[in-house]
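Figure 6 in text form: structure in, sequence out.
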């Protein structure tokens, strides 16, 4: 690694660090400064902006935002709350699985903000230390992103894998990630079940509730969505959303079974290495240039059939579902724009746009050097790429951006696709530094004050369950993927 490479890497890391300190839109915007330095000061060739992933996020967030505006998401939260309140003594295990499956359904972890105060309320009323369910529920809400067929990280993984010769569908990905992450959640729940002191034995908590004001604040309020009336239009919006998700799953399953239902289109493919051709008037054009004009010359161009890709299918179906909710469910687009799902989703778009573009620029220009540095390590221990995924995620707060930035490099190192699917849970590491909105919100929602960000920043409530999950789910993911690949021959 040369001095120039190290300096440029420091530029990338500095942009990520500064962006993380400012948060929100600054994550992507400040990455633009890093990109500018790499391009204009060090003259690196700009990488490709991750447009495919951005389009998918926009489509999915638009659909989820319209669902929220229709009131459909309130109905989903109500159903979740009824399940949680039916078994309050099991809140520590039910809360994380509720937030996990909500994220799997909707494709974003930002749907849980309404549910977090309810989880805390149930725990307090049952005398359970709220830190136990709240911390792991926040972790689980982000874990679900690698298990959702419409999440940007999953779709990007599929698209990039196909480009690198490993044909994989969304369903095949989540067949590994869902059981792996469920195992990880169970292990984190086992740790959390008796975590910390019970409330009746916690001297700090007992001292706090001796103050009548604090007692009224902690026990005097009841957070609930059950008193909210759900209209038929809101329920209809949920049915439309679930139908769209079902169609996407069915198409992916059919592709996995070798049944192609998507349309295919003829495209002109220029023969590589074809000699320039001189036309009338001494105009010289290559076969590729001729193909772009629609002129076909025998021996210079060929007709190729290209199948419609799943990332395009997901965009079409999500946008269509959003339109149907607007037309038939009285969902107001202006309300969607004001909602938390839309706003946080658009922040993710800007983050991925800036972060992934800057990272791609650096890695694309130094791919041979990276291969030389990492080949020996990943050849002996291909699973070690999980460490790199995790470390990058700690910095950039986006699983989709980690996939877009790091997966092409991983394939270029010769790591097999089944290994990369197995380690996919490791792309979630932004709990490590507790500055992500869902973690901060969870701390604020816990009226008991047991869910904390510690004095030394890293000694926070999310660290232990997060690390337990990542290690366990990654090991489980590799094991499951190994069985699918070598024993069952699924891919």
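Output sequence:
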């Amino acid at each position: 690694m040369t001095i120039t490479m190290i300096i440029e890497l420091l530029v990338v890391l500095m942009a990520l660090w500064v962006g993380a300190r400012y948060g929100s839109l600054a994550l992507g915007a400040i990455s633009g400064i890093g990109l500018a330095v790499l391009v204009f000061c060090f003259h690196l060739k700009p990488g490709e902006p991750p447009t495919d992933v951005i389009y998918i996020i926009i489509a999915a967030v638009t659909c989820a935002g319209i669902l929220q505006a229709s009131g459909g998401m309130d109905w989903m939260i109500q159903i979740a709350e009824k399940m949680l309140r039916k078994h309050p003594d099991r809140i520590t295990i039910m809360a994380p699985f509720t937030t996990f499956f909500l994220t799997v359904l909707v494709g974003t972890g930002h749907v849980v903000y309404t549910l977090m105060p309810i989880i805390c309320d149930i725990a307090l009323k049952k005398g359970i230390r709220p830190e136990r369910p709240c911390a792991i529920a926040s972790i689980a809400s982000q874990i679900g992103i690698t298990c959702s067929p419409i999440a940007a990280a999953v779709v990007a993984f599929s698209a990039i894998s196909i480009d690198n010769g490993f044909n994989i569908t969304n369903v095949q990905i989540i067949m590994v990630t869902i059981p792996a992450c469920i195992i990880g959640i169970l292990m984190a729940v086992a740790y959390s079940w008796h975590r910390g002191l019970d409330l009746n034995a916690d001297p700090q908590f007992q001292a706090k509730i001796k103050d009548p004001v604090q007692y009224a604040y902690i026990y005097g309020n009841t957070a609930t969505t059950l008193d909210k009336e759900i209209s038929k239009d809101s329920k209809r919006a949920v049915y439309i959303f679930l139908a769209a998700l079902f169609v996407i799953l069915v198409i992916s399953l059919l592709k996995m079974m070798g049944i192609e239902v998507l349309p295919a289109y003829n495209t002109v493919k220029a023969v590589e290495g074809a000699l320039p051709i001189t036309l009338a008037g001494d105009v010289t054009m290559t076969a590729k240039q001729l193909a772009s004009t629609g002129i076909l010359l025998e021996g210079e161009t060929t007709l190729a059939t290209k199948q419609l890709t799943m990332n395009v299918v997901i965009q079409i179906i999500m946008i269509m579902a959003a339109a149907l909710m607007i037309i038939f469910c009285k969902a107001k687009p202006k309300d969607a724009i004001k909602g938390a799902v839309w706003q946080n989703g658009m922040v993710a778009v800007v983050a991925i746009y800036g972060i992934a573009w800057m990272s791609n620029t650096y890695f694309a220009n130094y791919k041979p050097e990276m291969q030389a540095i990492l080949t020996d390590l990943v050849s002996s221990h291909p699973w070690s790429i999980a460490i790199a995924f995790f470390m990058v995620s700690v910095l950039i707060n986006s699983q989709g951006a980690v996939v877009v930035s790091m997966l092409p490099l991983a394939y270029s190192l010769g790591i097999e696709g089944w290994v990369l699917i197995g380690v996919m849970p490791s792309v979630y590491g932004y709990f490590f530094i507790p500055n992500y909105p869902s973690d901060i919100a969870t701390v604020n929602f816990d009226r008991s004050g047991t869910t904390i960000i510690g004095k030394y920043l890293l000694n926070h409530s999310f660290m232990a369950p997060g690390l337990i999950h990542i290690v366990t789910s990654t090991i489980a993911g590799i094991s499951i993927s190994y069985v699918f690949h070598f024993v069952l021959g699924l891919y």
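Caption detail: Residues 287 and 300 are 6 Å apart (CA to CA).
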